[in-house]
């Protein structure tokens, strides 16, 4: 446990630069006192780490020092190869770069970890989209990704679900998110979320921008999903399934009625009354449709 934590501390300093004891303690989920002891252990092991006192002080590695990947746990080595999705990387125009990076990583691993990574890649395959998801053309994904990387404004014609269906927007592209096989652009002003496959035309501007200093893409996406689910689940229904009554969230009476009807006699809607009546109405229509002809 301690050896893993020491390696994590070195990697944090290697990738993020100077860190205070308080920052390291928060990132490693330990006490500040433990950080002090770990720094002493790294010193004793010959790791060139030093600290500066004062308000702007902190710990850092001697310039040019790099650790090696020999500290990887076997499961971590395998996870690195699972984390690279070749499909999305190819869509972003980085398929060759991903393949090259994985080859270099594999060559850097010790033989036992290399075998573990090869076994993981041979026995596990990631396919993110759902079974019934259609392959959707995303012709402007590469240009959007390039604008995100360069911090350049985008002039787009965008198709949305309400009138007017086609609108022109000038967007500040903050980041891209891949969710269930579909690409989303998070862009300002706002920020707001846009489906990349709904961009009908695109022109990149030479004008650059800076995202807000406090913007964090993972945090924004987590909040966006919470708001989305709260919007969908606007009501509740009481149902009886397998002899058990339970309360479940529903989006609307119309959609819930079709969903529960598709479950057949295994699910009975008890409340609200308007939902029960709607299920009964739909069931009567289906029964009439299949009534034997004389």
From TrEMBL:
Gene3D superfamilies linked to this entry: Winged helix-like DNA-binding domain superfamily/Winged helix DNA-binding domain
Organism listed in the record: Herbidospora galbida
Keyword terms: Transcription, Transcription regulation
Protein name in the entry: YafY family transcriptional regulator
Pfam families, per the entry: HTH_11 (PF08279), WCX (PF25583), WYL (PF13280)
Chain ranges of the HTH deoR-type domain: 2-57
Domain of life, per lineage: Bacteria
InterPro entries: CBASS_pafABC_assoc_protein, DeoR_HTH, HTH_11, PafC-like, WCX_dom, WH-like_DNA-bd_sf, WH_DNA-bd_sf, WYL_dom
GO MF: DNA-binding transcription factor activity
């Amino acid at each position: 446990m301690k050896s893993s934590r020491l390696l994590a501390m070195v990697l944090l300093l290697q990738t993020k630069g100077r860190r205070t004891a308080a920052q390291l303690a928060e990132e490693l989920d330990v006490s500040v006192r433990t950080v002090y002891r770990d720094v002493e252990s790294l010193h004793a092991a010959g790791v060139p780490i030093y600290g500066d006192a004062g308000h702007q002080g902190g710990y850092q590695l001697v310039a040019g020092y790099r650790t090696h990947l020999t500290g990887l746990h076997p499961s971590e080595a395998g996870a690195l190869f699972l984390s690279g999705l070749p499909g999305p990387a190819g869509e972003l125009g980085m398929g060759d770069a991903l393949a090259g990076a994985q080859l270099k990583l594999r060559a850097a691993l010790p033989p036992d970890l290399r075998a573990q990574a090869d076994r993981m890649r041979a026995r596990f395959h990631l396919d993110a989209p759902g079974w019934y998801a259609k392959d959707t053309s995303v012709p402007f994904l590469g240009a959007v990704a390039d604008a995100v990387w360069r911090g350049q404004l985008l002039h787009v014609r965008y198709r949305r679900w309400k009138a007017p269906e086609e609108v022109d927007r000038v967007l500040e592209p903050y980041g891209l998110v891949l969710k269930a096989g579909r690409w989303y652009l998070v862009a300002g002003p706002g920020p707001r979320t846009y489906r990349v496959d709904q961009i009908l035309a695109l022109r990149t501007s030479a004008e650059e921008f800076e995202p807000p200093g406090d913007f964090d893409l993972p945090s924004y996406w987590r909040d966006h999903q919470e708001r989305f689910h709260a919007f969908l689940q606007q009501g509740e229904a009481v149902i009886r399934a397998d002899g058990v009554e339970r309360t479940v969230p529903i989006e609307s009476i119309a959609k819930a009625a079709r969903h529960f009807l598709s479950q057949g006699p295994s699910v009975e809607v008890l409340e609200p009354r308007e939902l029960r009546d709607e299920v009964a109405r739909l069931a009567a229509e289906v029964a009439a449709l299949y009534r034997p002809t004389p």
